[in-house]
Structure formats: structure tokens, C-alpha cells
Amino acid sequence: MEYINLLQWPAMIVTLCASWFVASQSKRKRQIGFWVFLLSNALWSIWGWHDEAYALVALQIGLAGLNIRGASKNDQESNGKDA
After folding, report:
1. What is the Cα–Cα distance from 77 to 83, expressed in whole angstroms?
2. What is the pLDDT of residues 1-50, one digit of tens each?
3. Global pTM?
């Protein structure tokens, strides 16, 4: 078994942890969650590229964009701006 195939397991765990943080009522924990989601996007993209799962890579790029948007809106909310 190639070691890169094992990458899907940490990617899954990181994704679950990110989901936990993003669902928090704490703005700080949500911010952490968005950054952890970006890490999971990178891990899934690496695994997907290796396995030639290009739809998964495209999905991760789209989700990374949404995570960046979410982090930005979370910051705006933290600064008292209208999100």
C-alpha cells in the first residue's frame, strides 16, 4: 500500500474536527474551524490528485473558497460589521 493512500484518514479526521469547531457559538472557535477546514481541503486535494479524483480536487477548491468567505464573514461579525 502506498503511504499517500493513508492520507485520506487524517483528512477525514481533520474535516470532522473542522466541522466541530465551525458549529461552535464561539467566534474564535469558528475562526479556528475555517482554518482547519482549509487544511482538510489541502489534504483532500493532495489525495485526490494522486488518485486522479479530479472532481474531488475541484470540489475542494470550491469548498476552500467558501471557507475563506466564511472566515471573512466571521471576522466581520467579530468586528461588529454587518455580515
Report:
1. 6
2. 688 989 999 999 999 999 999 999 999 999 999 999 999 999 999 999 99
3. 0.86
| pLDDT digits 0-9 by tens, 45-57 | 999 999 999 999 9
Distance CA 77, CA 6 (A): 38
**Encoded amino acid at 66, one letter:** L
Contact yes or no for 66/37 (Cβ under 8 A):
no
HEC-encoded secondary structure of 10-68: HHHHHHHHHHHHHCCCCHHHHHHHHHHHHHHHHHHHHHHHHCCCHHHHHHHHHHHHHHH
Helices 27-50 and 8-22: angle between axes, nearest 10 degrees = 160
Q: How far is residue 65's CA from residue 53's CA, in Å, rounded to a whole number?
A: 19
